[in-house]
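Q: What would this chain look like folded?
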Amino acid sequence: MEKRIKESWYDDARKITTVLIGLIGIIIILSQSFAINNNLSTWDIFRNIVNHNTIYLLLLVYFVAIKTYFGKKNFNYFNLLLIFICLIVTITSLLTVFQSFNLGSIVTFILNLTLFIYTMHVFLRNTRLWKEFKLKKSPFNELGNEWLFSAVIVLTVTKLAVTLIFTTSIDGAFLSFLDCIFTCLFGRYIYLYREYLDQKKIDANNDGDFSEYKEKINDFIEENDLDETIDAIKDKATDIKEDVSDGITKVLDSTDIDEKIIEAKDKVVDAIVKKEEPPKKKKKNTKKKVEK
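A: My prediction, written as structure tokens:
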């Protein structure tokens, strides 16, 4: 049973590469056919290819190249191209978060950031850059291969669910579904290459983890007495609140505000009563004037 699982296409990087090439071609062709059905001009279709499908075209170049002798010979250089592509996608998704802050943009950014970290810590392991940048000390080495691959799958499915909620067309929903499949298989491709590096023990002795950074944060808090500072700020805020309350109470007591309210109320009532009373009639002068 285990032998069958190991020999399945899902565990064969070469077969996954072939599937990814075909999937990229389908996505590009369908996206352009949908654009044609929407009566877009030739220039709009070309611009859509350049803008929307640029990343897919670059990935297509990468996967086709590593199938050739030249690509296999310069595999590490093409991997640098792959890492650069993931970096560009991550930066673009970050800018999208600033432009349109919503659940979809946040999930997309986290997914792209995870893929960038994943590719960088896998495809640089067999290069000189791994030692030059001392990536063996990177804290992300603590994240296991299974954990990273599972994170990619969960984030990809979450992104698909969010996209389908806000998608109003069948074309967009279908392309989103194909994009989900592509990302999952791409994550599997990275997973299998890391498995290969671990089996061959290529730059496998990595001791970086997050504990060092946790200790630095704790040391920073202790050195700067941040705990005491935070407690002092809380105490100060409580004192200010009590002082304000006491001050308001003293003002109310010193000005006899209750008596003044009652006095003002009486004046208002008297004014209303006076207004309702009928005006007194003036008495006519009945005395005759005495003639001289």
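Confidence is low (pLDDT under 50) at residues 1-5, 286-292.
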